[in-house]
Amino acid sequence: MNHRPNSLHMSDIAHSMHPYTNMRLHEEKGPMIMAEGNGARVTDSEGKEYIEGLAGLWSVAVGFSETRLADAAYAQLKRLPYYHSFAHKAHEPSIRLAEKLVEMTPEGLNRVFFTNSGSEANDTVVKMAWFLNNGLGRPEKKKFLSRTKAYHGITIASGSLTGLAGNQKDFDLPAIPVTHLSCPHFWRYGEEGETEAEFTARLLKELEDTIIAEGPETIAAFIGEPVMGAGGVMTPPEGYWPGVVEICHKYDILVVSDEVINGFGRTGARFGCEKYGFTPDILVTSKQLTSSYMPLAAIVVNDKVYNAIADNTAKLGNFGHGFTGTGHPVSCAVGLENLNIIEERDLMGNAKRLEPLFQDGLRAFADHPLIGEIRGVGLIAGLEMADKKTKQPFGKPGTVAAKVVALAAEEGLICRNVYDTVALCPPLIVTEDDIREIHTRLGRALDRALEWAK
Ligand code: PLP
User: Fold this and answer.
1) Which DSSP string do the residues of 123-158 spell out, in sequence order?
2) Can you tell me the ipTM of this complex?
3) Interval 366-381: pLDDT, tens
4) Is 262 in the pocket of ligand 1 (CB under 6 A)?
């Protein structure tokens, strides 16, 4: 590691506070500084090139050197670099992107509200649900249902919906009324002798029992990621999502599909809800929306949600919510161009076409002694480092997965350890050769980790 005086490394150690980082360890270890990107690859400040196996943070669909997005941003910066959407103001990029999102999302989702991040979007969803229920004269209908190991962000409300101890401990979360139901991960939580269908039935019974016990009149919404991402890449058991939606709608509970990772082809379908056969009342998207070239998230709601909110704004005279950056013109211009590229180059189709190569190649590691389960769909996958029989991690939780990720970086592959799982989520532009290279580099890292663990 480069610890030269006056280097970027030393400056970072002296001045920066990093998210998701042990800050004391960082003072010793210093940063890995990324200098440039090209396609599915990035190069660090030492000149070492990596395949970005996690597309940044599950997000850079079109790769790291798409000049059309740079051009779209520059053109918008010159024409109208900023304008807001408060109090009836509007501008072309946010109008066009809202129109595009309504066209792309499932039938019935007709109105769009923009925020700067996925966390802000989910906080906004909570406030929308509260606002509309107050407007409908049912002020007690406020609770959210979420799941253990869910990731919905880190702000006060979204961080409460998140179901991971690491995001809540010492942050005094949850801070809003939320009940976390069981994580729908069959391999880990299925009981001895239970079939996948029985597991689904048990989880759906838990959902309905919880609604009845807490009172349907107290529950506003159920939120979930179709495929759970940052909690460890968990695909849902057969029949889970249609069952959840049926029960929620029976009790007039809104269903929110958090597609911040799932959206725009990641699962091999356009949206995760389409992959798993349900239509939510509210769909949240971000990340691949702009390929993260600019910060942007969008909430797309159905008419029932929109009308209840709109009626209450008419009653109160205002929707007292919104950000300076809501519908930022540069972010929206980049988002629009990004979605055009995704469609023109059929990148969602690319994810579907490459799914067998990507997933089967990973499943070829199934017998590896360090791997408990390999799971995933489309171009997203997780390899859980655990004993195959006991399903317990080896040694201190998270250690082996962190080692695999560190060795993979040495082999020229960036991936991410989320707890005991090594997560992969490459850019949608990857080629067959890139995928084979991901498998090769990961295989070397796994073998080196096994040597290290002995
Ligand atoms: N929802 C999901 C499903 C996510 O994966 C994330 C981020 O990873 C978020 C919400 C929060 O988004 P942000 O980091 O932009 O606040």
Assistant:
1) HHHHHHHHHHHHHTT-TT--EEEEETT----SSHHH
2) 0.99
3) 999 999 999 999 999 9
4) no
